[in-house]
Structure formats: structure tokens, C-alpha cells
Amino acid sequence: MPEPAAYQPTSARFVTDPYPAFEALRAGPPARWDEATGQWVVSRYPLVDRLLRDRRLGRTYLHVAEHAEFDRPAEPDYLQPFWATVRNGMLDREPPDHTRLRRLVSAAFTARRVRELGPRIAELAGALVGDVLDAGSDGSPVDLVAVLAEPLPVTVIAELLGVPEADRWRLRPWSAAICRMFELDADRADGEAASAACLEFGDYLSRLAALRRAEPADDLLTALTQVADADGDRLSSGELIGTCVLLLNAGHEATVNATGNGVWALLRHPDQHARLRADPDGLLAPSVEEMLRYDCATPMFERWVLDDIAIGADGVGTTADAGPDAVPVRRGAEVALLLGSANRDPAVFTEPDRFDVGRAPNPHLTFGAGIHFCLGAPLARAELAASVGALVRRVPKLAPVAEPAYKPGFVVRGLHSLPVTVR
């Protein structure tokens, strides 16, 4: 028998196609210890879904323990700016801090604000698809990542926050440097670059926020400077910066990759591409969900175990009531929840390795679950729908040129480029 595909999240070969390894993991124990990463790996949909919601796990442990209690080294000085920025956002907070921050940010980043962006997102996507058509009018290849997938989210998040057009070129390098630190193989050079980006971005946002307090505008940054809860509580200056950095990273890096991965999935399934072109009004919404499921741009979320648990085939319990197949996971351990594997679990999805633009139901976990469910999910869906909708309606002959290469990251996973022709 052939050896099972290896789970090697820092390997370029694995990143290019992790799905055989995911299948092998799902066939194994409910949780598997990975010596290389020092994590318990969980790959089955019911368990990933349950653990995302389980309050015995957290994005951080610092609200209940010091580093030494979890057998973790003290953080080096060069990473202090990075961690200060990240921990001032809601992503690395747990209740009650997370509850307070999410309430305040949600009051400014409202569903209505996202809905009102719809026409502008469609306008931007249409203009960028026009650029794709112009660049490929002579039959030469066009990089769909560079011309469409990257510019749309950065323009949308910049306009949403109120970043002047002249300054927007700064955002992507900052975002890329910060997100690199979430990868499993990040090194000191990555950490220093991330901290430098946090300091530069923080300084820039502090100055822009001061301007918005003095001269309010119709943008999210102004709303965040003004928002207050029933008790008059407001975002601190650090929380404001941490929130804006989080919105940039989550709303930009992941959306760029979701667009590239999604369009590549569509192009390598020409029958589904033709199906969507024939009925874009009826199939655009489910096709977006299928793109998000099929080749997940955020295939792993990490959690810290705050109390002893036992992970079994039938669920998650205490070590005292664990069944014979359950794997005990002790307080202080780190768990890797494989959303990308859960999204291909045959226990939940019929023919999970088949790309189906009409798939329904489609309860994928790409945006997470529980209290940390992605606040920007509606915006990401709107951007992906605008890009894909404009492509299928206006570029009927869109075709790939060659097999694209994935970037080295696994936690945030996407394509370097996607060369296509349009005629």
C-alpha cells in the first residue's frame, strides 16, 4: 500500500495540494500530535466546528495564564510592537475583552455600511475587469491576481477606512509583512519586518485618526473614533489601531487569496465555468460559497487549550468521561483546526472533492464559527461576487495559461499569480 500523504504545512509541495494529506488525517485518530509544529491537528468537520465554538479553547491564553504556566518562552523584545498591535485588536482577545471590542467595532462596521458599499464594489470590479480586457486584448497573458484580485480589496478597505488615495500603496506591504508572522515557519527576520510594519502603520493611523477627530468624514475610521457603548466606553487609541490593522489584514490578504483560489478552481473546471456563464444571476451566490469552500484561503485556525479536554470521534468532552477512542489534550497545548480539511469532509459534503457551482447546502467553515466568526464575511462575499460576476459576464473566453504556483504560506494560502488569456 502507498504511504499516506504527509502533513507538512511548511512544505511547498503540501501547500500546493494539501487535500490528500487532509484525507489521510481524517481517516486517522480524531486528533493527531504533530511533532514538527508542536500542535494537535484536528481535521474532521464535526470536531473542527465544535472546537471553534468551545470556550475551553481560546485564541489566546494570556487572560488566564502567564507564558510560563503554558510552558511558553517569553516573547523577545523585537516582537513587542507586533504583539502589542495584534493584541489590541479583537482577534487575539477573549471575553470579556473580546465581547466589548466586538460590540464597539460592530456598531461602526455595520451591515448597512457594507450593503451601501455594494454599488461602489461593483463599479471598482467592473473597471478592473476592463483593465484585464485591455491588457489581454492582443492575446497576451494577463495576471489576474495582480490586475484584479489584489487591487479590488485594497481599494475597498482603503476607501472604507478613509485612507487617501495617495497613501494606499503603503497598505499591501504592511499587510503582507504582518500576516507573514502568523505562518508556522516565521523567523526573526519576519518578526522584525512585522514589528516595523506595525510601528509604521500604527503611526500612520494615529495621525489619520487625529485628523478624523478634528475633521470628521463619512468613513469607518471616523465612525471608530466616535463609537461608544451604552456606558460611554470607547475604543482606546491602541484598540483603534489594532482594529484597523485587523480589518486590513483579514479583509485584504484573505480576500485576495480567496479570489485567486476561487477563480483558479472555476477555470480548471470548464464544465462548471460554462454552467455559471449560462446562469450568472442564479448561480453567482452559490458559486461564491463553493469557491470559498473548495480551496480555502485560510485553511488553518489555531487555538490554545485552556482546560483539559478529550477529543473523540463523537465529540469533545472532559478527560474523565472520555471514550476509548478519545485523545486527551491537556491545558496549555495548541490545537491546529484544519478548516480546509473540514470543508472537504465527506461526512458533511456529498462528493467533497467535486467543484459544484450550484452546491446546496454548503455549510463551509471558511469564515470560522463561534465568537470569532469573521466580522468581515459579508464584505468578502460581496467583493468575490463582484469580481467573479464581472468576469463571467464580460470575459466569456477567459482561460488559464498554465498551472499557477502557490505562495509559501499555509495559514494564509493563495496564488503568486494567475496568468490568463481573454480572447
Order of helices and strands: HHEEHEHHHEHHHHHHHHEEEEEHHEE
**Structural class of the helices, strands and pairings?**
alpha+beta
| CATH fold-level assignment | Cytochrome p450
Query: Please, how many domains?
Result: 1
- Taken as a percent bin, the fraction of beta residues is 5-15%
The whole-number mean of residue pLDDT values reads: 94
Task: Give the count of helical stretches.
Answer: 16
Helix content: 40-55%
Q: How many strand units?
A: 11
Which residues form runs of ≥5 with pLDDT under 50? Answer: none
End-to-end Cα distance, whole Å, is: 46 Å
In CATH terms, the superfamily is: Cytochrome P450
**C-alpha Rg, in Å?**
22 Å
Tell the overall outline.
Answer: globular
Largest sheet composition? 5 strands, mixed
Strand order of the largest sheet: 1-2-9-5-3
Overall CATH class:
Mainly Alpha
Query: What is the CATH architecture descriptor?
Result: Orthogonal Bundle
Name some characteristics of this structure.
globular; Cytochrome p450; 11 strands; 16 helices; five-stranded mixed beta sheet; three-stranded antiparallel beta sheet
